[in-house]
Amino acid sequence: MKYFIMDLNPLYKAPNIVSGFNEINKRDITLTRWRALKKRILLYMETDENTVQTGLITSPLLLFEDEVFKIVSKYDPKMPSRQVPLLDAERRISCLYYLPILPRVDCISPKCELSNARTKFVCTPILKLNKIRGNHIFWLDGIDSDLPIISLELAESILKRDVMGIKLTPVELE
């Protein structure tokens, strides 16, 4: 099986989230503490004529657009989440995203070089396939990962829907 880092394609301008963060404690975005989060978290965004509703937003939080979230949920039906409506009051635009609560998987190969701060890869990420154990979407454990790893099957399901703004970078497996 192949795996990819899923990121926002820089050719697309995603909604810019500007406020509402005080509703979210990042430490609660884990499988052990997610129930501390509100069920629906309103965030405010800024948009302009070039902004599109991308399939995901990666900053400051990982958020999936409704259609992407439905696809991801089919691959991991027990994945907890929270609804995140985004509102641009000035332009009277709103859209619905979901905050997924992903598992952390310790599968980074010792052959993989990380920066001194252990926050990003120096080379192409190398993952141990036997440690992934069939997960279709997850965070990398052991680094401050902001981007999810997804399986080829899940990536194909998302891309078949012509979702905008998703970039996939392959990872090496051992």
Strand content: 25-35%
The secondary-structure element order is EEEEEHEEEEHEEHEE
Oligomer: single chain
Mean pLDDT: 91
Largest sheet: 6 strands, mixed
Q: Structural class of the helix and strand makeup?
A: alpha+beta
**Tally of extended strands?**
13
Helix content: 10-25%
N-end to C-end Cα span: 11 Å
Number of domains: 1
SS summary, helix count: 3
Enumerate the strands of the largest sheet in spatial order, edge to edge or round the barrel: 2-3-6-7-5-4
Cα-atom Rg, whole angstroms? 16 Å
Shape: globular
Uncertain ranges: none
Which keywords apply here?
single chain; 3 helices; 13 strands; 174 residues; 13% helix; 5-stranded mixed β-sheet; alpha+beta
Task: Please provide a written account of the structure.
This protein is of the alpha+beta class and 174 residues long. The protein has one domain. 13% of the residues lie in helices and 30% in strands. It contains three helices and 13 strands; from the N terminus they run βββββαββββαββαββ. Strands 2-3-6-7-5-4 form a six-stranded mixed beta sheet. Strands 8-10-11-1-12 form a five-stranded mixed beta sheet. A hairpin with an 8-residue loop joins β10 (137-140) and β11. The chain is globular, with a radius of gyration of 16 Å. 27% of the residues are buried.
